[in-house]
Amino acid sequence: MPWFLIEPSGYRYPISEDEGDGLSIGRTPDNDVILNDTGVSRHHAYIRVRGQEAWLYDRDSANGTWLNGQRIAGPQLMKPGDAILVGNTELRMSYAPPEPSPAAVAPPAAPSHKKSAATPYIVLGMLLGLLGLAMIGLAVLPRFMQPAAPTPTPSPYARYADAIRATVFVLTPVGDTPNGRAGTGVILTEKGRILTAYSVVINPATGRSFNRSNQVTVGVTPAAGGQNLVWYQAHVVRADRQRDMAVLQIYAMQDGSPLPNSFQLRTMPLGDSDVLQPNDSIAVISFPAGGEGTGPNLGKALALGEGRAAGFLPDEAIQAERGWIVTDIALSQSNIGAPVLDGAGRLVGLYPGPDASQKSGAEYNVRPINLARPLWVTGP
What we know:
Blueprint: E1 3-6, E2 12-14, E3 23-26, E4 33-34, E5 45-50, E6 53-58, E7 65-67, E8 70-71, E9 76-78, E10 83-86, E11 89-95, H1 120-145, H2 161-165, E12 167-173, E13 180-187, E14 193-197, H3 198-201, E15 202-203, E16 208-209, E17 215-220, E18 230-240, E19 245-253, E20 281-286, E21 303-315, E22 320-327, E23 339-342, E24 347-350, H4 354-357, E25 367-368, H5 373-377
Parallel strand pairs: 3-4
Antiparallel strand pairs: 1-2, 1-11, 3-5, 5-6, 6-9, 7-8, 7-10, 10-11, 12-13, 12-17, 13-14, 14-19, 15-16, 17-18, 18-19, 20-21, 20-23, 21-22, 23-24, 24-25
């Protein structure tokens, strides 16, 4: 998927080329790109990719959709770098061309061993051959002196490929309503142990699950690839309000049937948050859905934000010298439960949400992953 939509915060959203898929933009949680902007309609705009072409559609929004300063009246073909304005938010299009397949090289012709019938012409032929080689060299040499063609820009998701496969969508039903508390989680073990933020599965106001059955639904990227998540049932096995994290365990398929004997998930590559240093590169991957809501598009797209670790803060409540990782990545409720990765794509932290992070003095600080190890290592 070489086409991406980039938010002002730097998050990149890949745009699917599959028939019927695309990227929806709006204010409600059933969109792929959720914007907390009062000027954005509930379902504002849509982007569809066909081959190498990307098309922008307005969805009868109140304030219109603008492309490079012009309000669109119908589908508009876009190019890399185009600016899209929805409400008061400017988005940009990006294109990373796929790497070309290497051209086939024809085998060299077999040398001829036929002898000349006229010996006197051998010397003349050699001289003409040398002259021809010299002329060819003069013609070809300037080409070798020209700068090499630029290497196609690789996908910004390439280094995080393993982490993306182990990033899951978490949806906790709220009471008996059709709504759910949405967030992101990470796979810790092959048998389905999941780490997520405390407030994705536990109501901070009551300290209890959002539903009486302690039920959680988890969407996992299929091992064979594809756009549709595979859904499972899970329950909370441990929740730590002081660390702002919770651990889930998958126990059944979405319809309640037992897990197959072959059940095995891809796990998140683990890093060490204690060796993370200020100014080290970090990234946050999350499903862009927060708050309460449901819809067919929930869990369809991943967002990527890149930045740096600005420093560390202690947490006296849990006696941790590194209680928080200070980041320069803009985070919000829509990123709750998101894994934080180091430059090698390994898990080094988890975003507990803006309410929890406020305890550190900033709503976008994250918890180091080493604080979560006791939860899943010693958990039931």
